[in-house]
Structure formats: C-alpha cells, structure tokens
Amino acid sequence: MTAAPAPTGRVLATLNADGSRRWIRPKPSRGKFWQRRRAVAYGLMLFFLAIPHFRLNGKPLMLLDLTRREFTLFGTTFLPTDTLLLMLLGISLLIGIFLLTALFGRAWCGWACPQTVYMEFLFRPIERLVEGGWARSRQLDKGNEHFHPRRLVKYAIYAVLAAVLGNTFLAYFVGTEQLSHWMMQSPFEHPTPFVVMAITTVAVFLDFTWFREQTCLVACPYGRWQAVLLDQQSLIVAYDPNRGEPRGQPKKALPLAPAAGDCVDCGACVLTCPTGIDIRDGLQMECIHCTQCADACDTVMRKVGKPEGLIRYTSKESLAGHVRHLIRPRTVLYPVAFALFFGGFLFALETKPKADVTLLGAIGQPFTREPDGSVVNQVRIKIANRSRATQRYTVDLEDADGARLIAPELPLNVVNGRTVTTSVFVILPAEAFHHGQKQVRFRVSDGAAFMQEVPWLLRGPEDHDGKREERDK
After folding, report:
1. Strand pairing report for 419-428 and 404-406
2. Which of the four, 73, 174, 305, 402, has the lowest number of CB atoms within 10 Å?
C-alpha cells in the first residue's frame, strides 16, 4: 500500500505539522478595540466577584441553593415548581443569543465570555509579566522548558487565582455568609462543599494553564453554531481582500508591474491572534472576533501611511460591495419572539401567587382515635412565601361543623423566599365521616394580599358507617 503523504503544514492552529502541541503566545496589540475590551473585561471581573456580596430585597443578588432547591436571581426566588417561569426565561435567553449573533456576530466570545475575559486580561498578562515578555515566552516554548523557574512562579500565581475563582464560584451556591463560616473551619467539617471548591479550582487551573484556547476550539460549541446563526448581513471581524490583495510591498523598481494591495504581508494579524489563525483566509470557526487582528493591522497601516480598516467590523455583504441591511427576516422575527417569551415571563412573574400552599398527610397512620371516640387527623401545611417581605400566615378550617383545629405554631412567620412546613391537627367526631372520609377546606391567609383555599380529604373509621346503617334498619 502507498503511504499517505505527510502534511505540508499545520492541520489545526494548535497543532504543528508533526502533530505536536503548538503553544499559542499571542503578541498583544493595544489598539482602540483592545482598550475598550479591557475596560469591559475588568468591569465583568469585578461584577463576577461582587455579585455574591450584593443584596436585593434582603436576598443575595444571585444564589443557586441546590440543597433547598431555591434559585434566587436579582432578588426573586424561583422554586422547582416554577416550571413555566424557568422555561420562559430559558427560551428568552436562547433567543437573545440568536439575536445578538445575528446583529453583532460573535461579540459574546470576543468581549464577554469568561474564558476570553480571564485568559486575555488576567492570566496571559501575568504570564508575560512573569516570564519576561512575549518573546521570552516563545523562547521557553522552543526549549520545551515547561518547568522553568519563571513558569513555576507563574503556575503558583495561577493556583492562587484559581482558588479565588473556585471559592467565588462556590459562593454562588452557598452564599457568602456560609462560605465565610466554612473558611474558618477544617475542611473535614464540610467535606462535600470543599470537594466542589477543590474540583472547581483544579478545573480553572488546568483550563488557563493547559487547555487555554483549546477550550474555545474544541469544547465550546458556539463556533460550530455560527454556521447557522450568522448570515451574509451579520457583523463579523474580517479582512478586506478587495483592498488588501495582492499582498506584498510595492515594487518600486518595476513601475509597470501591477500595484500591490494595502496588505504588506507582515503577519502581525497572525502573531496577535489568540487562537492562532490567519484572518486573511476568511471567516473561520476558530475566530472569536476579539479584534486583536484589527488593532494590529491598524497600527501597521498607520506606519505605512495607509487608511485604517483593512481588517475591520463588516459583513460578507459589505465585502461583496453591497449595502448591509439591518432590517431582515431574522432581525425582525428574533426580537418579536424575544418580546413574546420575555414578556410572558414578566407577566407570569408579576401575576404568580404571593405564596404556594401544599398540604401533606401525616407520616405513619392516616388518623388516630381519642379515648372519647373522636378522630384526629394530622395535616402538614407547607407554605412558600413568594412576596418580598416576611409574612404571618393563619390557617382556618371550612366545611367542618363541629371540628376543632389545633395549630401549635400558628400564626406562622415565613421569611420572604423561604419555605416552612408546620403541622395542624383536626379533631372530628366519628359521626362526621361517611365511608371513612370527610371533605374539608383549609383557608390560608396572610391577612392582606394573599388568601387561598385548599381542599383536603380527611380520613376516619369506616366501621362507624356500618353500625349506623344497622341501627337505621
């Protein structure tokens, strides 16, 4: 059999021709887009670190309490029973991503994705500072010096930053108060949260130390989605071949030779790309639209006296010489769909009951008998306070003449966003039951904006009906 020909170049941006890992060390281009992205990135970092500490309506701004199965977002607590609300919110976010991509391309990837934000504006700047600059990092790669003293120092700093991010991530699930309490204790007193934090810390460390841009190229599906999310009018970062080709310096010695394009083929756009691609090859899955190539190219254009914008925000239609149309089917349908679903979410959020009431039977026997023959039913009442303030709930019994309601814990104080379960005892004479059943209604009220009646079937002895029927005969 004939051997397959050896590759003549790199198959992937992160692979060398021999299949070994090609470490990408992008040379930073500090142009106008980089400055704007840096401001956005630092703002997002501060926001991520601050969210668990902020309070709204007396609750954390965001708390995903898996133990209680309560999810607090911007002061509003959602429960697992909020299926409709969570569905409407999820669909709204998905449509929002579609709309953002249709209008601005992969703006999320280049400007707001945590992977890009932390990689390009925290971990890589530290890397260049510790290792002695961009050129020195490349020299260490050529010598395969992964355990050079400078890199060991870098790894130590990365480990500390990963621990900070891991603990912050845990705060989103347990709250800052609980996290602070745990940090003062031994990990053996709370092993499960500690393991979660440790796994997160290791994942962050490996991500920004080893996987790096491969997280975007291999793990994240967004680059593959762009084939269906983008159209000819979508905003992208692209090289203008009409203006740039043919590449190369003008040939002054040959005045009759065709004039070269504006691209001087310096390779600055490739050196600065964080995913290692050549933007001049057209739109590619690996491009995250970070605009580093545009900043690098604009710097070169100013030096050679050419207009900026050889690489710029544009669209395929604009590159083809056509007018870009902002109004088109997907930019109309997506906003309409978003307005319908998100409007439905807001409407459902505002009109949902101020509390959820659930009745549960007794654990064990359905009823008990008193010495005087009366029947006792234990009913557990679970109240979830959905209002924005602590409420006092009372419970009354309807359609139960002659019944006595014993409620040791009423009125019941329930903090906003919390769920409390209490037990009440209903005592009825045996004659009140027909075929062992008695239908009643429980009325739960906070004395103001909330009142709900919940039907409930009490259980009692069935033999009493038979004896009564024999007496009647």
Report:
1. antiparallel
2. 305
**Looking at the 3D structure of the chain, how many domains does it have?**
2
Out of 352, 372, 403, a domain closes at 352
39 and 146 in a common domain = yes
Q: Please, are residues 74 and 66 in contact by the beta-carbon 8 Å criterion?
A: no
Q: Are 435 and 465 in contact (CB under 8 A)?
A: yes
Pair (317, 178) in one structural domain: yes
- Block means of pLDDT (10 residues each) for the chain, 473 residues, are 54 75 91 96 94 82 82 80 88 91 88 94 96 90 86 96 93 88 87 90 94 89 79 90 84 57 93 94 90 96 94 92 84 93 91 86 86 90 84 86 84 84 90 88 87 90 56 44
Output the six-digit token pair for 415: 């903090």
Residue 99 phi, psi dihedral angles, 5° rounding: -65, -45
> 402 and 334: one domain?
no
Burial annotation 119-156 (CB, 10 A radius, 16+ → b, else e): bbbbbbeebbebbeebeebeebbeeeeeeeeebeebee
User: Can you tell me the distance from the alpha carbon of 100 to that of 222, in angstroms, rounded to the nearest whole number?
Assistant: 13
- What does the alpha-carbon distance between residue 42 and residue 114 come to, in Å, rounded to a whole number? 11
Q: Are strands 76-78 and 311-314 parallel, antiparallel or unpaired?
A: unpaired
What is the model's pTM?
0.78
Q: Do 361 and 340 sit in the same domain of this protein?
A: no
Burial class of 97 by CB neighbour count within 10 A (0 to 12, 13 to 18, 19+): middle
Clarify whether residues 333 and 366 are in a common domain: no
Q: Which domain holds residue 146?
A: 10-352
